Amino acid sequence: MTSLSKKPAIEKKQTKYIFVVGGVMSGVGKGITTSSISMLLQARGLRVTALKIDPYINVDAGTMNPTEHGEVFVLSDGDETDQDMGNYERFLNTNLTSTNYMTTGRVYRTVIENERNLKYQGKCVQVVPHIPLEVIRRIKKAAKDADADVVTIEVGGTVGEYENILFLEAIRMLKLRHPQDVITVMVSYLPVPGKIGEMKTKPTQHAVRTLNGTGIHPDFIIARSDRPLDKRRKEKLALFCNVSEERLISAPDVESIYEVPLNFEKDHLSDLLLERLSLMPRTPSRLAPWKKFTTQVRNADQEVHIAVVGKYFDTGDFVLSDAYISVLEAIKYSAYTLGSKPVIHWLSAQDFTNGVPKGALDMYDGILVPGGFGESGIEGKINVVEFARTHAVPYFGICYGMQLMVIEYARHKLKLAGAHTVEVDAKTPYSVIDIMPEQKKLMAAGNYGGTMRLGTYPAELTKGTTARSLYGVAEVEERHRHRYEVNPEYIESLTNAGLVFSGRSPDRTLMEIAELPKEVHPFFLGTQFHPEFTARPLRPHPLFTGFVRAAIERGTK
Ligand code: GLN
User: Fold this and answer.
1) From the candidates 399, 408, 480, 515, which is the catalytic residue?
2) pTM above 0.90, yes or no
3) Structure confidence by residue, pLDDT tens digits, 36-77
4) Measuring from atom 7 of ligand 1, which residue has the nearest CA?
């Protein structure tokens, strides 16, 4: 037998790569498209992992203002990433790692470090090919780490932008090496101008041409619009964009983002992707749990009104709930599984700085104070916490929301006037929230990026508490992102005054959950960690469920 006819003992699997790029304009659903494609292929039994490429120079999203950029999504390994990573985790119901996220800053940093370490053996290090090669290396590493059959990669921004050219170059180079295994999906917007009343395909035609200029042709076009593609538009797009009609997928506006994958399947997207990539499904489609969830969403009718009191809302005339997207999603999942329709009210903390005006919070069934930083709006939030505590309104405090709960309790129950967090008042007579010693050193050195207590840490739960009964287990792991902590010096007096620390780090030094007993308050609980990052449509978070259930009970009283 010649070696040529010999079959390798184990057939080497060739990973498939699906790139998702944007045409025409951003903000029309590339993230949800990437999440949906990933989920649909996963539902066919394939191992799928999803990557996000952000074209900005920032090494991570941690230093960006949430009002401009939206939420900073923290992965279990502590990476501070883009909110799209949250969508991938939620749709795939899996934990991703920092290998799944890259920015221009990250890519350049590695190449420059490599050059300094003589890794290029004296060669001239150039933007092309070295930058795209590093992008490809990162994509392949993520594929290997996840042992993925398919990798979906979302390229931030839109084609034609200066910023993402090198990532498009990486697609071209990867496809040159693996022509059968790399495809590109373009998410494009088709406007229906009010005066004309007809869906226009021209901007998409231009976007395809721009993409063609980088040596890439889209294999699929996801046609985002306020309505489905009609026959005429399909014919036009197919002809002028050179993409067959069946690979033009309608993506009309939908009531909820969870409908998107099901809509794609109406156009047989997963079959078409598998066919294009010569992949066999491993199982029949397993979309039943997802369909059940979307039915719950559609059927939810009893309204539960939740006030979220924050400060990252204002961008001109718009309310940007993106800064709290995971919190919003987590509330929804719990509400839907309880058969309720969540109605979220975004309240600005500044409106409560001088106290809670009479009646201003009466219409809400539950109040949530999410994570936050710094001084602005803080007194307003503390007033809201006091109102919730003294009026038996279900309250859920996350991170800053828990710290403010402790401050409020110290000020009003322990009568420690001026009790504060040193984050806001370094000279407070009662620093009930203080900086952790190791953080002190980093800040003294002016080191702010990626230096908080980040990522997953365990917490032990105290028997007989709300937290323990909701989780139903004795130890949990949750994701963190903070610099400050409940000051151990005050724990005894706070506990004596009735506040229960129901979750602690295993060495007992860090307070992870604070709550009031059920006999005192229907639901008054705060977490130093961020439970919202691990709430999933198919696995709502028990603490959110406890909070929403209490809110529903109040609403029906
Ligand atoms: N600002 C607080 C801290 O750094 C809370 C952080 C947060 O809410 N994510 O500890």
Assistant:
1) 399
2) yes
3) 999 999 999 999 999 999 999 998 888 887 777 788 999 999
4) 371
